[in-house]
User: Which sequence fits this backbone?
């Protein structure tokens, strides 16, 4: 198994085709930030810290779902609640970055929902899986792509067991998927940055510094980014 691969992949680093990139940024606001990595690798932990440190810089897009609203849930706040035919048509029209089905309901992130966050001047954070990354790369959303790499599958298993969120079955599924996800994540050219998430404090500093540097670069190109 892959372990402790300290690869920093800057294949699409900030200097890459800046002029074509900046015209896109100018019209749409800050570039979305994709954080991808196996379940249990620590994505939510990194994002929680980032939001705590920069409360107004980032935002999550609002997902669509075909499930019925629960009490207190509002359309356009918690989800965009839609009917299945409407959602299927939008997917067929290539309006979604990723979709999934759970317990008979569809869920998905639309390109428009990402643009909505960009239009507010915020960096849209997307915690998405490999398929979503492949999809978003085909769009003109021009995301910053970061892969959160766990030290080993054994450590991933330890973290997931400690989190206490899994049954033996879901744990196995997540660990099986992790092998494939890590291979994809470490393939040169797939991500702008790989965070080797061993020690959480070190990982967060590396993640944070990379993101801040990217945002400062965009600011220098005329994009309004509120870094506070
Ligand atoms: N570097 C780390 N070292 C040790 N434990 C960690 C580290 N990062 C996260 N954890 C712990 O591992 C568990 C999984 O982390 P987290 O929930 O952030 O993962 P995730 O990638 O968001 O998972 P999922 O995709 O399933 O939501 C949590 O209990 C978290 O506290």
Assistant:
């Amino acid at each position: 198994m892959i372990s402790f691969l300290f690869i920093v992949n800057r294949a699409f680093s900030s200097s890459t085709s800046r002029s074509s990139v900046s015209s896109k940024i100018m019209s749409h606001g800050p570039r979305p930030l994709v954080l991808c990595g196996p379940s249990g690798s620590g994505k939510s932990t990194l994002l929680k810290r980032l939001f705590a440190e920069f409360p107004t810089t980032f935002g999550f897009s609002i997902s669509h779902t075909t499930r019925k609203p629960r009490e207190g849930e509002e359309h356009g706040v918690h989800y965009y609640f839609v009917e299945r035919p409407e959602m299927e048509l939008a997917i067929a029209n290539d309006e979604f970055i990723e979709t999934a089905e759970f317990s008979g309901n569809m869920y998905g992130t639309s390109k428009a929902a990402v643009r909505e966050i960009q239009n507010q001047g915020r960096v849209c954070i997307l915690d998405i899986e490999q398929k979503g990354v492949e999809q978003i790369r085909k769009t003109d959303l021009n995301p910053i792509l970061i892969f959160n790499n766990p030290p080993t599958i054994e450590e991933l298993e330890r973290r997931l067991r400690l989190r206490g969120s899994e049954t033996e079955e879901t744990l196995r599924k997540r660990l099986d998927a992790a092998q494939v996800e890590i291979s994809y994540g470490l393939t040169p050219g797939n991500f702008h940055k790989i965070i080797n998430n061993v020690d959480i404090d070190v990982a967060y500093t590396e993640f944070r510094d990379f993101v801040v540097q990217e945002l400062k670069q965009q600011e220098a190109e005329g994009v309004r980014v509120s870094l506070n």
